[in-house]
Design goal:
oxidoreductase, 11 helices, NAD(P)-bd_dom_sf, about 45% helix, alpha/beta, oxidoreductase activity, SDR_fam
Length: about 325
């Protein structure tokens, strides 16, 4: 019932962005389509100084740039940068470019993600391949977070502001009870989960659940921080996130979206709101443009969160030695 109330009642209350972003630099990954593109459109309309569309496909990014530019305020500079979240080398190269080319970063949206309905392995996230949902939505996302944090911290010092790093999460994290949580090596178990597993259909929700655990661990370990880091649930929206769905699964998801989904623009309001949520949102899960309560699996298992945080840092160090010192 909470989901239905959110989709039908709270959607009507989502504030349309109206803040001025004059002089600011904002970066959005996954911004050539869906929520990222609509959030970018809001920022451009509201006068951001520099807007970085971070995308995997540069041609699609340029097409999005042209579309966004038609409603942008005068003087907004829009750039298209490449990042492939399936390749740690690309994430590192992007972060290096961000550090060297941008004079400041006021808001960073780690928005790129996917739903993989078939088992695929991604290489480069350690000695062995990692299942795609976990690799992209969890490991790649937090590798990116760790790599761009120094620039946001420098921005805070040099400009006397408090930048915000927003990670796009999902209410789908409630759709798993984390059945593997009693296993001795949590990350290894979920990284190897396959289609023949009885828990395969929970793999996407689990990838988002892990991210909520991580954000709470960051705030617990670093409560006094010059950067606000939060996660936001945009609700069920019309987007191409489920583009890989097939057969009955595709039909069922399409029907559900037709009945209850928010428009992409409405969902994007939650991302923009999270960008100005302020220090009170540090380490928080944002729902319907306000601080919300994540799944009980998260709130009632802090010990699991601490174990996952240790394992995540170990994995990030394996990918990029020294990177966890950026937290």
């Amino acid at each position: 019932m909470g989901f239905i109330h959110s989709q039908f009642i709270e959607t009507r209350k989502l504030p349309c962005p109206s803040e001025s972003y004059s002089g600011q630099t904002i970066v959005i990954t996954g911004s050539n389509t869906g929520l990222g593109k609509e959030a970018a459109r809001h920022y451009a309309r509201l006068g951001v100084k520099r807007l970085i569309l971070a995308v995997r496909n540069l041609d699609k990014g340029e097409a999005a740039k042209k579309e966004i530019a038609t409603t942008a305020a005068i003087g907004v500079e829009i750039q298209v940068w490449q990042i492939d979240m399936a390749k740690p080398t690309s994430i590192k190269a992007f972060a290096t470019r961000l550090t060297s080319e941008l004079d400041r970063v006021d808001i960073f949206h780690a928005n790129a993600g996917l739903v993989s309905v078939t088992y695929n392995e991604v290489q480069g996230f350690g000695a062995k391949g990692v299942e795609m949902n976990i690799a992209i939505n969890y490991l790649a996302t937090y590798l990116l977070v760790a790599l761009v944090l120094p620039k946001l911290k420098t921005t805070a010092i040099e400009h006397g502001i408090r930048p915000t790093l927003v990670i796009t999460s999902s209410g789908a994290h409630r759709h798993t009870q984390f059945p593997q949580k009693s296993e001795p090596n949590l990350l290894r178990v979920v990284s190897n989960n396959r289609e023949d597993s009885p828990h395969w259909m929970e793999q996407y929700p689990l990838s988002k659940l892990l991210g909520v655990f991580a954000i709470r661990s960051i705030a617990e370990e670093y409560p006094s921080y010059p950067v606000t880091i939060n996660v936001v649930n945009p609700g069920l929206c019309h987007s191409d996130l489920s583009r890989e769905a097939k057969g009955l699964q595709k039909v069922a998801f399409g029907l559900m979206k037709a009945l209850v989904a928010r428009t992409t623009e409405e969902g994007s309001r939650t991302l923009v709101s999270a960008g100005i949520a302020g220090p009170g949102s540090h380490g928080q899960y944002l729902d319907d443009c306000k601080v919300g309560e994540p799944s009980e699996v998260v709130t009632q298992n802090p010990d699991i969160g601490r174990r996952l945080w240790v394992e995540l840092k170990e994995k990030l160090e394996e990918i990029q030695p020294g990177v966890t010192g950026n937290f």
